[in-house]
Records
---
Amino acid sequence: MADCCRHKQRSAEEIKALKTRLNKIEGQIRGINKMIDDDRYCVDVLMQVSSVQSALNAFNKVLLSSHIRSCVVDDIKNGNEDAVDELCELLQKTMK
Amino acid sequence: MADCCRHKQRSAEEIKALKTRLNKIEGQIRGINKMIDDDRYCVDVLMQVSSVQSALNAFNKVLLSSHIRSCVVDDIKNGNEDAVDELCELLQKTMK
Amino acid sequence: MADCCRHKQRSAEEIKALKTRLNKIEGQIRGINKMIDDDRYCVDVLMQVSSVQSALNAFNKVLLSSHIRSCVVDDIKNGNEDAVDELCELLQKTMK
Amino acid sequence: MADCCRHKQRSAEEIKALKTRLNKIEGQIRGINKMIDDDRYCVDVLMQVSSVQSALNAFNKVLLSSHIRSCVVDDIKNGNEDAVDELCELLQKTMK
C-alpha cells in the first residue's frame, strides 16, 4: 500500500459485502451496454439505469453508515474532530 | 433480435457516444472495487461513488432527451399517444 | 395579465388540485418555522423537511405530467417543436 | 415547552439564520401559488419549484451540519451513541 493514500481496515465480511454489491452493479452496467448493442428501446434502457442508480445509492448508504459508526466515532473519542469537518463537507457535496 | 423486446434504431454516432459513456462508468466501478481491495479510506471511496452517480445521471439525461426528440415526437405525429403515457410513467418512477 | 409572461389555461379542477397541494406545503413550512421557535430537536425538524421535499416533488411530477400531456403534445401536433427543446432543457436543469 | 418533545438550544444567531431561510422559502411557495392564480406557463412554474427545492436542500444541509457538529459530537463524547444510530437512520431515510 502506498503512503500517499489514507486507508481503513475493514473486516473480511464487510469487504465481501461491499464487493458483492459492486460486482452486481458492474454486471448491470455491462447489461445496459449490451442493451445498446441490441438496439433496445429507450424506456427499457432507462428503467435499467434507474435500477443501477438505486443500487449505487444503497452501496453509498451502507458505506457511509459504516464510516460514521467507525472512523467518525473513533476520531471524536480520540479528541480529533477532523472527521466531523470532513463528513459535513462530504454531505454538502453529495446530498442532492 | 428476439421478438419479445421493443427496439430502437440509433445512429452509429449515437451508439458510439452512449457506449463510450457506459465503458467509462464500468471502468469507474472497477476502480471503486479496487479501492475496496486496497483498503482505501471511506471518504475517498464515497467521493468516487458520487462521481459515478453524476456520470450515470448524465447518461440518463442524454438518453432521455434523445428518446423524447425521436420516439415521443414521432409517436405523437403518428397520432399514437402511448409514448406520452409511458414517458409520464417513467418520469414518475425515476424523478426523485 | 401582463403581456410579458407566457400563460396556460388550466381547468378549475386542476387549479384547485394544484393550489391544495401548495397550501399544504406552505402550512408545512410554517410548521417547521414554529419548530425552530420551539427549540425542537434537529432530527425531528429534518424529518419534516424531508416530508416537504416529498410533497414538492409530487407537485412537480403532477405539473410536469400535465404539461407534457397538454402543451408539449399540442405544440408537436401543430408542427411546433419548441416545447420539445424547452422540455429537454427543463429536464437537464431539474433532474438530479 | 411540552415534555413530549425533544429539544435543542440554538444560538439566537443560528435561529435567525434558519428562520430567514424558512421565511424566504414560504414566500417562494406563495409566489408559486400566485403563478397558478395568474395562469402562468407550466415551465415557468416548474423552474420556480426547482428553485424552492434547492433552497430547501440548502436549509437541510445547514441544519444537518449543525446537528452533527453539536448533538452528535456531544453525545459521542458523553459515551452515548444513540445519536449515531439516529443519524444513520436519518441518512437512510433522506438520501435519494
---
Amino acid sequence: MSTGDDLSRWGWGYADREPSEADRRELKSRVETMLGFPERPLLELPDDGAPTVPESRVEPPFHFCTTDPEVRARHTYGKGYPDLVRGFYGEYGPAPDAVARPERESDIPDLLLWASDERVAIVPYGGGTSVVGGVECRGAGYSGVVSLDTRELDEVLEVDHTSRAARVQAGATGPGLNAQLAEEGLQLRHYPQSYEFSTFGGWVATRAGGHFATRYTHIDDFVESVRAVTPAGVLETRRLPASGAGPDPNRFLLGSEGAFGVITEGWVRVQPRPRHRSRATVRFDDFWDGVEATRELVQARFSPANCRLLGPREAMLNELAADGSSLLLLGFESLDGPTVETMERALAVCADHGGEWDDPTHEGPDAGGAEANGPEGGGREEAQTSGESAGDDDRTGTEGEWRNSFFEAPYRFNTLVSIGVLVDTFETAVTWDRFPDLHEAVRERVGTAMREECGAGFLSCRFTHVYPDGPAPYYTLLAPADPGDEVEQWRAIKQAASDTLDEFDATTTHHHAVGRVHRDHYHREIPDGYLDALRSMKRTLDPEGIMNPGALL
Amino acid sequence: MSTGDDLSRWGWGYADREPSEADRRELKSRVETMLGFPERPLLELPDDGAPTVPESRVEPPFHFCTTDPEVRARHTYGKGYPDLVRGFYGEYGPAPDAVARPERESDIPDLLLWASDERVAIVPYGGGTSVVGGVECRGAGYSGVVSLDTRELDEVLEVDHTSRAARVQAGATGPGLNAQLAEEGLQLRHYPQSYEFSTFGGWVATRAGGHFATRYTHIDDFVESVRAVTPAGVLETRRLPASGAGPDPNRFLLGSEGAFGVITEGWVRVQPRPRHRSRATVRFDDFWDGVEATRELVQARFSPANCRLLGPREAMLNELAADGSSLLLLGFESLDGPTVETMERALAVCADHGGEWDDPTHEGPDAGGAEANGPEGGGREEAQTSGESAGDDDRTGTEGEWRNSFFEAPYRFNTLVSIGVLVDTFETAVTWDRFPDLHEAVRERVGTAMREECGAGFLSCRFTHVYPDGPAPYYTLLAPADPGDEVEQWRAIKQAASDTLDEFDATTTHHHAVGRVHRDHYHREIPDGYLDALRSMKRTLDPEGIMNPGALL
C-alpha cells in the first residue's frame, strides 16, 4: 500500500503517472481536432523542488505530527480541478500548519483536546481525493490548521463470517481493504472512481457512491455501525442489521464530512465474489429512448449491478461510439444463480424502446466462462489496473473498456490541466418527471457559461446510478482555459451548474459530497430548520468548532 | 373511511368486533388446554357508559379542538397490552385535556404557537396504534396536554406517474391511502400489522415495518421526501430519488416520533401490483436448520417478499403445524418476469438444510393463475378482510391462513385481555453470530419472568424480516395474569425482555418504535453523544419542549 511518497504532489495518483510529453501531445491533438478547441499550450510542468508553504503557525506537541513542508503541501488540496490547477502552479498558500498521522485511535482524543484548547482547526484527511474542497481549510479565525491523516489506521480488525461483516479502520484504502478481505474470501464490492486512493472513513464521511448502479448505490447501504472520535468523546453505534429505534445514528455520521468528529472505524457488510455475471451493451439511436428504457427497467424492479446510460457525447468521449448513438451498459451479477434469463428479459425491455445489441456475455460455473476465484491483492500493480481491483476479470468488450476508462479518467485530468483544458464533472439526482427540463437547462446554461468564460465548451452526460423514481445524471465538461485564469473560469461555470440544479430542486450532489464548494447550495437544498438543528448538534459534539470548519455547515 | 366513532373505545379495531361470549369461551378453553394455563376468568366487559376522565386543564381556542370526554378517552392510549388493560377497566386518568383535529395543515402552526406560549404539551396522534406508549402523555410540568389527531388530513394530493411517486397527507390510513392510489392503478405495498388503522404520518414518525421481509422492510425505504410542522416552522425536504449531500434530512424525521414536530405529508415511491408471485411453505424438523436456510437465502442475495421463519411454538400458535416443526413461509413477487425459477433455486437451498415442502404455488400471466387487477378499495368490508388489502388474492393454503391470522391477531388481544391472559409481542434485530445466544437468553429469562410473575408462560418466535447480516426475531408471549395486577406483571416481564436485548447489544426495537416504553433502553442503545445531539436538535426546533414530551428523548 502506498505510504504517500510515491504519489504525485499535485496531480491524481502516482507520481510516475504524471503526464508524459507523448500523453500531452496526443490529448492536445485530440481536443483540438475532436472537440474543435483552439490550439492548446503545453504548459511548463511543475518541478520537483521543495514546495513553498507559509510558515507554520502552530506546532502540535505530539510525536505523530509534522510540520515538514513537503508533507504539508501534499495535504493542502483534494483532487478537484481547481486543486490540480493550483498544485500544478505550485500554489500551496492554504497548506495546513501541520499534519498529524496518528498510529492508533487513542492518539486522537488528545489531539482534539489540545486543538480545542488552542483553537486549532482539525481537518480529517483520508485519501485526499475530495473534489469539493473537503480537505482545504484556511482556518480564518483559528490559530492554525492541522490535517489529520488517518492512513496509518488501515486494518481490517475482525471478520464475522457468520454474519458476513467486517470491522474496518477508517484509513484503509480501497485496494488495502479488499486485499485484507480477500484473504478471508470476501469483498466489500464498493468501487467509487477514487477507489485506488480513497479510504473507508472518507467513504462514510462523504456518503461515497460505488459502482453498483442500483440497490447498493452508496456506502450507506453497506454500513452496519460507525465509530467516531469527537471533541466531546467517542461515538460508537451498535452493530445491527437494522433498527427502527429513533432517527438512525449511522445516518447522522454518514455524510458528516468531519464536521462533528473523525470517523475511526466501522462494521461493513461484505460478500463473496459473485458467481454469475451477464453483460450487454445496448445501442439507442436516440438518447431519450435510452432514458425511457432505463426508467422502465428500474421501475420494473430489475436490479442491474451496472446500468450506465451514456449520452452520445459521453459515448464519443470514451471512444465507445462515434455515430451519435447512446449506449446503455447493462450488467447483472448474482451469487445464487445464472443471470442469463434476467438479462434476456432486460434486453426485451430495451428492444421495446428501439435498443440494439450484440450478443451479451455470460460468466459463471454453468456458462462455460472461467470463474475467477483468485484473491484480489492490494499491491500497486493491481491497483493500477483497477479493472481487476473492481472485481472484473473480463476486461474485453465495451464494458471492459468502459471500466478501464472509468478508473483511468482521473489520470487524464492531470494531462488536461497541463495543456490548458478546463475539466470538471458534476452530478445530481432528480425525479424522472423533472429530468428532461433539468437536462435541457443544464446543457443550455452550462454551455453558455463555458462559451462566455472560455469561448467554447463540451458537455456530456451519463447516468451513473438509477432509481425507480429518478436517475442520477453525471455531467463531464471540457473547455479551453486561459492559463492563469483557470480557477476563476471554473468558478463561474461551476456556479452556473450548481444554480441550475438548485433551480430544478435537484440535489446539489449525488455522491461528490458537500465540502466547501457545494456548501452554499447545500444550505439551500435542506430545510432551514434542519440546518439550524445540524448546527446545534455540532455545538454539542464540537463546542469549540474545531472540526473541519467551513465544510458542510 | 372510519371517522373513529365506529371503533372500540378500549380495544383493537372496530367496536362490533369486541369479543363475543363465544370468542371468549373458545379462547379460554384453548389457553387452558393447549397452553396448560390455570382456569381463566370471564372478566366483566366494559360498559358503554360515558367514560370518566379528569377535568380538562386547558381549552384550546380553536374551532377544531374539543374537550368532549368520549373523544378524550379515545385518545388516551395506544394499543399495547397495558393500554388495552387500562381501557378495559375504564381507567382514563392520563386522558389528554383536549383533542385537536385540524382540517388543514395551516391550522397547525397556530396551535403549536399557542401551545408554546401556554406550555401545553402536543401529542401527535395518527391511528393510535402505538404499542410503546407513543401517544400517552401525562404532561407533568405542563399546563395541559393536547392530542393532535391528523386523520382529517387524509388525501393523496398528487400522483407522479412518470416517477411513480405520490404525495400523501399524514392522516391517510393504510386502506384509505391504497384506495386512493388504486384509482391510479398504483399501490404503496407497505403493510404493517396495524395497516387497517395506522396512518402514513405515524409510519414515518415510527419507522414502521411493512410485510416485505427483505429489501423494503421499513417505510424508510419508500420515502422520497417529508414535510413536518415544528414549533420553529415548517421543515420540508426536497423530492429526490437519492442524494449524497450531508446527513440525510429524511432520516432525521424518520423515527422522530413527534418529538421535533408533526409530520403533515410526504412523497412516497409507489408501484403497480406485482404480476408474478410464487409461494411455498417449507417445513424443517429443527428450528436451527430453518435458521441456517434463511441465513443462506438472504446472504445469497435472494430478495423474497415473504421470508417468515416460524418457530415450532409460533407455528402451533397460528395453527399451521402442531408436530414441533418450524415453517418457513417463502414468497417471491415480481413486476417483470416469472418467479418460478427463483423459487426453485430458493427451495434447493432449503433442501440442503433438510427443508421439505408441498408444491409451491405460482401466479402470473404465464402461470395459468388469474392475475388480479381490480382496484383495492379502502372500504370497511375490505379492511376487515385485510388479506385482500394486503394485496393477496389467493388466501388459500398456509400462506393465506398466515396472512389472515396476521391481520386478525390484534383482535385476539382484545379477547385475551378479557379472559385474564397477559399477551405481548416484542421484536429486535441482531447479527447472525449473536442470534443463538440471544435467543437462548430470551427464552430463559423471559420464561423465568413469566413464571415468577404469573406462575406460567408461553413464548414463541418468528423472524418477521431478515437481512444479510442478521434476522429480526419477533417474540409473542402469553401468560395467565392476575386481574387487577396485569400492568405490574407486564412491566416486570417487559423489563426482563428489554434488559436481555440490551445485554446482547441487540436493538431495542426493530419496528415497534421507542415511545415511552422503550425510552430508557433506547438511550442505552445509542451513543451518549448522539443522544445529547438529538436533544440539542430538539431545543432548536421545539424551544419550549412542547412536542410529545417523554417520548423518544
